[in-house]
Amino acid sequence: MIDILISGICGHMGRNVLELVLADEETACVGGVDLRKGELQGVPVFDSFADAPAADAVIDFSSADNLDNVLGYAARTGAAVILAATGYTPAQLAQIEAAAKELPVFKTANLSVGINLLQKLVKEAAAFLGENFDIEIVERHHNLKKDAPSGTAYMLAESANEAFEGGKEYVYGRHGMVGARKKAEIGIHAVRGGTIVGEHEVMFAGDDEIITLAHSARSKRVFAAGAVKAAKFMCGKPAGHYDMQDVLKG
Ligand SMILES: NC(=O)c1ccc[n+]([C@@H]2O[C@H](COP(=O)([O-])OP(=O)(O)OC[C@H]3O[C@@H](n4cnc5c(N)ncnc54)[C@H](O)[C@@H]3O)[C@@H](O)[C@H]2O)c1
C-alpha cells in the first residue's frame, strides 16, 4: 500500500485527488494539509505539516507559496514529492532543483497525458516549420485561476523554443501600438472566464496556411489521475528531478 499525504486537500484539485486515492486499491490517504484543520471523507486535515504523519509521497496542489513547507516535510520524512501547483518564481525553481539533489522530486505544470503528447508534437512542428511560421499560444482557464499565463502555456512555449535553441522571446497579450510582429517572438495570451477547466492552443501561422495544435481538458479529474499515477511512479525512486515524460516512459 502506498501512503499519500495531500497538501491543499480542501481545494478543487485536492478533493479530486482524495477521491481517486481512496478508490485506488494500491493507495491510502494518511491525511491532508490545508489552511484549516478538520476532516474530509474520514481523512484528518492538519493546518501544519508539523502535525502531519509520515507518508511515502506528498502530492501538493496548494499554492507556490507553500513550497518551503512541502519540501521541509519531505526532507524530514523522506517522502517523495509531487509538485503540482503552478506559478513558481525563478528563485523557487532553483530551490526545487537544489532539493532534487537530496530527494526524489516530481514537478510538472500539467499532469494530463494529452498535454504531454502535445508538448512533443509542438517541438516537432516548430523544428519542421522553422522560422517561416509565427508561433502564438492561447490558453483559456476558469475565472478563479490566480496565475497567468498558465504554467502549461510556458511549458509549450519552452518546447517550441527548444527548436530555436531558446532564441525566441516571449511576448504577453499585446496591447496598444506594438508595431509589426517580430520574427523572434512567441506570443502568449491568457483568457479567463466561467468554469473552463483548461484549454491550450498553439498556432503556427505561415504564408497562406495555418497549423493549430490544441488540447482541451474537460474535467479536473484528468489532472488528479496524473498526480496519483506520478505518486505511484515516484515511490522508492532515487533523488532527482522527474516530470510527466518520465512517468509516461516508466
Ligand atoms: N499541474 C497540473 O496539472 C495542475 C492542474 C490543475 C491545477 N493546478 C494547480 O494546482 C493549484 C491548486 O489548484 P486548485 O484549482 O485546486 O485551487 P484551489 O484554490 O481550489 O485549492 C487550493 C487549496 O490549497 C489550500 N492552500 C493554499 N495555500 C496554502 C498554504 N500555504 N498552506 C496550506 N494550504 C494552502 C487552499 O486553502 C485550498 O484549499 C494551483 O496552483 C493550480 O494552478 C495544477
Structure description:
The chain has helices at 12-23, 67-77, 90-99, 113-129, 151-162, 221-234, 244-249; strands spanning 2-7, 27-33, 38-40, 43-46, 57-60, 80-83, 104-107, 134-141, 169-172, 185-192, 198-206, 209-217, 240-242. The protein has 250 residues and is an alpha/beta fold. The protein folds into two domains: 2-107 and 220-249, NAD(P)-binding Rossmann-like Domain (Rossmann fold), CATH 3.40.50; 113-217, Dihydrodipicolinate Reductase, domain 2, CATH 3.30.360.10. The strands form two sheets. Strands 3-4-2-1-5-6-7-13 form an eight-stranded mixed β-sheet, with helices on both faces. The protein has a five-stranded mixed β-sheet with strand order 9-10-8-11-12, covered by helices on one side. Helix 2 (67-77) links the parallel strand 5 and strand 6 (80-83). Helix 1 (12-23) crosses helix 6 and helix 4 (113-129) runs parallel beside helix 5. The protein is elongated. The model has no long low-confidence stretch (mean pLDDT 96). The chain binds nicotinamide-adenine-dinucleotide.
Protein topology:
Layout: E1 2-7, H1 12-23, E2 27-33, E3 38-40, E4 43-46, E5 57-60, H2 67-77, E6 80-83, H3 90-99, E7 104-107, H4 113-129, E8 134-141, H5 151-162, E9 169-172, E10 185-192, E11 198-206, E12 209-217, H6 221-234, E13 240-242, H7 244-249
Parallel strand pairs: 1-2, 1-5, 2-4, 5-6, 6-7, 7-13, 8-10, 9-10
Antiparallel strand pairs: 3-4, 8-11, 11-12
This protein binds nicotinamide-adenine-dinucleotide.
Residues 8, 10-14, 33-35, 61-63, 65-66, 84-87, 108-111, 223 line the site of nicotinamide-adenine-dinucleotide.
